[in-house]
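Reminder: ligand-aware prediction takes two inputs, not one.
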Amino acid sequence: MSFQVDGTSFLDPFVVDVDLDNGAMPNATNHLVRRASNMRGYYQDEKALEALIADGDPLHYEVFEVPVPEEYGHLMYCISKLQPGRVGDEFFMTKGHYHTVLQTGEIYLGLRGEGYMVMKTPDGVFNSQPIARCKMVYVPPYWAHRSVNVSDEPLVSFCVYPGDAGHNYGDIVEQGFPKGVFLEDGKVVVK
Ligand code: PAN
Ligand code: ZN
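Here is what comes back for the chain with 5-phospho-D-arabinohydroxamic acid:
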């Protein structure tokens, strides 16, 4: 059967395997891989990032998806796996984005590792919430979001968001976030 009502495609139900321990979807058809070299312009210490790139360009994070139509009514979902590490004193993080449809939110359920979801509004209000196993972060509509790993194991989370949300990276490239997450005197500091 194939039809659409108001632009929302009919689909048959399906099931997806999720590897909670390793942070993967074994049958993912979208597997996004970001290495250190994909993160130029995002960290405060550019020299430290270049040193990391020269030293093997390590894996930074992966996103696994079995995509659904990017349409109103569908729910996109993913497993995000962010490696542990620092660029200088700044903990590894994802690029971060607004949703193109700004009035769409997202749920992140922590599965492994510990870190923060750092968030900002278009007018610069900042918020950060801890993410860890058994914690679910609600990212409301309008908030740009980036995850940061402060643990010494991968930060694995499951996310779900409206299918038509889209991703706007450009505004974060231009604006950054007001605060980052750093190791300072042996402590994790959001500053
Ligand atoms: C997540 C993120 C994922 C990777 O699926 O896309 O964690 O982070 P970046 O997109 O910032 O590189 C999500 O928030 N989707 O909307
Ligand atoms: Zn998102």
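DSSP finds two helices and 15 strands in the chain. Residues 2-190 form a domain with the Jelly Rolls fold (CATH 2.60.120.10). We will return to this case in the review session.
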